[in-house]
């Protein structure tokens, strides 16, 4: 689960990480009020959306006089930001973070992630790169200091020394960096994060560190023990069809093609998308109905799939195991009766109760194309799409 | 022969009295797996189809000769269940549970490091040595005993591949689901070592997916150590970056973990990479007939 910058900063503040003075607002009037409370000459306004690349897209504005804040906030609230991470449709700005402008001497990167190969959390820090950290990681990895934290000993003072002195700082700066590294790591560890990063972490001209931007991604599997985190979810930032799917415990991701897919199991669902591509078309979505799907889940999954207007043909690829083919067939026939379907549906069924499943489809009087095997199914789906276009 | 499990494997089921645990216990028994005990705290003394249930793993180990454990315990308690099995030194633990918090698994891995214990999973369909033993939720009937070893991060995609093989009359020595999570027990490298030494296994299939660098690490190892022929399929060539594709581990982040990179690394190591998932069986037929 992702959260906004202002929410991440709130969490880090609770863990003792210094953040610039400011507050989040939804109206220009509130923006003006917060700016007055800050009382600084330079004010920064930052659009709060779940995507990076805001600066270049006009989502971060700096004003040199508090009197300009209200006007700039008016321009920003309600605007649609398109960044490389939002997709072409962009995202509507509903909230902005109004903050004190800082006099920056140096920009650093500080982050904690899971190192999958070592099965340990790793703290990464660099004085190069700042927001271009991925480039630094790819081109000059030696400029990134990495320290792995063994959970049996925790984050020890010597590890922080290795990071601080490893970055080339003197004792004074290492002392000031210490609570930030400890705070960030503790937030990561106690809140079940997959990523917690401060980027950039800045050193001001007066020699103080501040988290100028922050990003936290939580482990969905750990949310059950963090009710306070679940409340931070912003549904505006998610695709409506994906929200609908999550209500039924379905895993749906909207993509850009025309072949709607319904599959059981994440691996087979990805492989189904890939085989569609092999035959020359593009998948419209990823939809994993899961191992233990019920008739109702299948029915709802099919409806969600069909509510995407880009879907011109449907390919259902099921390898029944725990999910029985008759359950699938019942769900699909019910859904087809409920919603008007005017696109071809190709069904490939295999596994548990396959005969019963095929019988239900055949006896339904509805128009399904039955395919034997994944190869034939994908081929027929792509053929049906090309016939339509011709 | 086969790897990790065979006709001498004696299985304990943790969480046997739950819905999932009971259903799959019966399925495993029906397949021929020797299930000798169950554990559910508070239900000690009960029996499921004549199989004794104990309160603790230690008790089950004391009373029966267990050498493997299958875990069907809800995510919040599953890490504890793995640790309990490890505490009793059960040499093979198969954790089927999906949704265990990542940080819980990091602590579990640290503990397992200290002991000589194999963990399969979590978030795995399990492991099967066809005709001998099945510890997991896969449908037994699609399998057939034979020369091909399979390692996979996915469930139904593995069934798909197994089905392609069996329909061509090609059997499997052992099929292992390594799990779809970020932090897992045995990985490709561990299994490659075991399969390379197993006389029954003549060829291997590796089913990978986007996310992490396990396939790249396997490629390096294959290049140095493995002589047996390998076919690989990597799912997620069309997956968008930054989106978790179902499995917790299947995510392209920071430009790393793409299917393309993995395929290239494997090809460089001499692995036959198949781009069409429906043609894995056909490719294997060619290799075995050579």
Topology:
The complex is a heterodimer of chains A (390) and B (290).
Chain A (H helix, E strand, L loop, with lengths): L4 H10 L7 E4 L2 H11 L4 E5 L12 E4 L5 H8 L3 E2 L9 E2 L3 E5 L3 E12 L4 E7 L6 H7 L4 E5 L8 H10 L4 H20 L2 E12 L4 E3 L2 E5 L8 H4 L9 H8 L3 E4 L4 E5 L2 H13 L6 E4 L6 H12 L6 E8 L4 H14 L6 E7 L2 H10 L4 E4 L1 H17 L1
Parallel strand pairs in A: 14-16, 16-17, 17-18
Antiparallel strand pairs in A: 1-6, 2-3, 2-6, 4-5, 7-8, 7-10, 8-9, 10-11, 10-12, 13-15
Helix pairs in contact in A: 2-3, 5-6, 10-11, 11-12
Chain B lengths: L9 E5 L4 H13 L2 E6 L7 E2 L2 E4 L2 H7 L4 E4 L3 H13 L4 E4 L6 H12 L4 E3 L5 E4 L3 E4 L8 E8 L3 H12 L4 E6 L10 H10 L5 E7 L4 H12 L4 E6 L23 H10 L3 E2 L6 H10 L1
Parallel strand pairs in B: 1-2, 1-5, 2-4, 5-6, 6-7, 10-11, 10-12, 12-13, 13-14
Antiparallel strand pairs in B: 3-4, 8-9, 8-11
What does this structure look like?
The complex is a heterodimer of chains A (390) and B (290). Chain A has 3 domains: 1-20 and 103-238, D-amino Acid Aminotransferase, Chain A, domain 1; 21-101, Dna Ligase, domain 1; 240-389, 3-Layer(aba) Sandwich (Rossmann fold). Chain A is elongated. Chain A is an alpha+beta fold and 390 residues long. In chain A, strands 7, 8, 9, 10, 11 and 12 form a 6-stranded antiparallel beta sheet that branches. In chain A, strands 1-6-2-3 form a 4-stranded antiparallel beta sheet, covered by helices on one side. Chain A contains 13 helices and 18 strands. Chain B is built from 9 helices and 14 strands. Chain B folds into 2 domains: 10-120, NAD(P)-binding Rossmann-like Domain (Rossmann fold, 3-Layer(aba) Sandwich), CATH 3.40.50; 138-289, Succinyl-CoA synthetase domains (Rossmann fold), CATH 3.40.50.261. The two termini of chain B are 23 Å apart. Chains A and B meet through helix 4, helix 9 and helix 13 of A and helix 4 and helix 5 of B.
